[in-house]
Amino acid sequence: MNLNNIPQIKNTDADNFFLLAGPCAIEGEEMAMRIAESIIKVTDKLKIPYVFKGSFKKANRSRIDSFTGIGDEKALKILQKVSKEFGVPTVTDIHEVSDAQMAAEYVDILQIPAFLVRQTDLVVAAANTGKTVNLKKGQFMSPESMKHAVQKVLDCNNENVMLTDRGTMFGYQDMIVDYRGIPTMKQFGTTVLDITHSLQQPNQSSGVTGGRPDLIETIAKAGIAVGVDGIFLETHFDPAHAMSDGANMLHLDHFENLMTKLVAIRQTINNL
To answer: Which pTM was predicted?
Structure first.
């Protein structure tokens, strides 16, 4: 896909990787605006094409008492406000066919969660909105099998599709990134590596997903080195008290340092 098809995206002529980043879930307006402002200062400085990420609701939860959101329309309006105030595109994930058209009225990219990427009706509903569709590779799927998910979008006359690797299930409580899958999926379209979800430790006995944020830099550097087009990560100014996925998020204080290192690696790769 052509990044320039995403409304308001900047710095596409910088020959850099692009970035989808933000909090796991929209917890409120103040936190969303604070995170967006911090990220945009860095991405503008480093000339990184940027899309603000935030889930308007969380449907894939381990326990019934887990945080699911502040209200669908309320969260979507916050995403829309971020886009208008900062002039950046936005992405959110959808879980049901009825979510597609609703979310498409507020955001620029619709993301299909990894657990749901084989749900044909959901993928088709997202594609039929005409929005860019980000397909996350199922933890149970091979990179090769993602060509079928991509084809579902293309068959809806929508060429704005990207694929995101977020690790593969390794045993019951761990994820692993097989970097051989990046060049494989690049044959099918624009490829993204989800850094933070690749470091999840799901299915903990507590019912709260764990993670390895200490390895974020390692996974990210390797992804840029093998040629991903973009990276996805979740970040928060207080991960310990985030309402969702705090255990594997990048602390916002470390964001600029990481991006600076990744840009340097990308520039090196470009010059080889």
So the answer is: 0.93
